[in-house]
Amino acid sequence: MKWLYKLSAFAALILLLSSCTTQLKDYQASSPELDIQQYFSGNLIAWGMVQDYTDNVTRRFCVEIDGQWQGDNGLLKEVFYFADGEISYRNWQLKKLPQGKYQGSAEDVVGEAFGQQVGFAFQWQYDLLVPIDGDTIEFSLDDWMYQIDEYRVFNRTKMKKLGVTLAEVTLFFDKQTPGKTCR
Q1: pLDDT, tens digit, for every residue of 59-79?
Q2: DSSP letters for the chain
């Protein structure tokens, strides 16, 4: 009978913790409203860092982004400049769908990425191939963007493997200084 009490307490704890999760709909009434097509159009720059599961900063980088849209189809050309001298590229092919939803693909993304914008927030989920020490690891990314004002967006991403968060990426996008470069 004692095991039944422990099992019931454990189930109640799991239910309580799962009900505390932030959901995109929580931002329905927030402003300013993030317009993905408008914000990621033209040139912008971002700075970021990667932290491992112990919160140790393992990488720092700068990204130059050039966004072009034709109707509901977009191309985001990203050039990443890492503090250790590595340079990498990603080209997002994006498609706006009804109700603030988006779908996308890129060279290092497995399958399709799916996201949705609500209020000042955008959640984007996809699987990414990441080269690490001569190997390539597939991570599941849960990417959240929050528009602060017309020029700035913050981005936090959890990188998971088998459901466990192994790293987090934090980015700060700035559209106010389009002439600035990472070099």
Answers
A1: 999 999 999 999 999 999 999
A2: -HHHHHHHHHHHHHHHHHTT---GGGGTT-SSPP-HHHHTSEEEEEEEEEEETT--EEEEEEEEEEEEEETTEEEEEEEEEETTS-EEEEEEEEEE-STTEEEEE-TTEEEEEEEEEETTEEEEEEEEEEEETTEEEEEEEEEEEEE-SSSEEEEEEEEEETTEEEEEEEEEEE-S-TT----
